[in-house]
Amino acid sequence: MNPRARLLLGALLAVLLLLPAFASNYVISVATLILYFAFTGQAWNVMMGFAGQLSLGHSLYVGVGAYVAAAMFVNLGIGPWLGLWVAILVCMALGAAIGFLAFRFGISGVYFALLTIAFAEFTRVGFDHLQWTGGSGGLFLKVAQREQMDLLNFRGPPAMYYYAILALAAGALALCAWLLRSRAGYYWQAIRENEEAAQALGINTFRYKMFAVLISSAMTAVSGVFFAFYYNNLFPEQIFHISRSIEIILGPIIGGIGTLFGPVLGAFVLTVLADGITELLALFGVEVPGVKQVFYGVVLLGVVMFLPNGIWPSLAKKIGVGK
Asked: For residues 263 and 253, what is the distance between their CA atoms, to the nearest angstrom?
């Protein structure tokens, strides 16, 4: 990372750290949503952007991570910090199962993507009928948000959740930067560009693809736990739906797949503009069902047509920073 990039990153971090001091709760909630999608986008980017494995079912890990931690909290009284590790382990086991089935039997490309969708849909149907987690009626956390911070149970005001997701997003960025420059990162990029050539060079492609799946699923499980304790309610139809997976992947695609800052920029563009359009329509008393989805489609079409590598690579070149 060159000096200019470090300076810009430091300035951005300073602004984000000071934001709750002068921003309203609404602005904080929008910023929290941006950082949430930046974090989940980084998690998906490890699998697709770095290792070239297209997943369209990442809602599986969000949903399972959320339900495991929330159900342990509601039904067993086990706090989110222990539930977090259980959620990570369960999601990694699911990721390992999907990866093993796919990579051991040569399932790749669009067929691998369909496999990830199928697992997410099977799991949604299962949770629809699982009464221990509320079934289709939903699971509701018993402890509501309150103004006093309760870190043990992860309860508190909006600023607490904002700083938590800021720490997660910053940690994900640092982790991905390290991974991209590690041996695994170079092997992933070789696999992404040409898997057969990578095998010919002696790279154990099965091992390193599994490694990418495990890291991605673990990171996404963390976002699921945050989702559960931030929103306090879970419904299988909502959290496992393919639209949840699409929301996760749009940020990296629009910002720049395989880049470090692409998922962050993509999350910012999509969230701010989509929310702005919704608020603008509300100001004029107009309600358009599905307006966000239409907006996502228009932005995606524009990026594919005019910036096929995403917004960040072009922007980074203009301001003289690395990817």
From this structure: 8
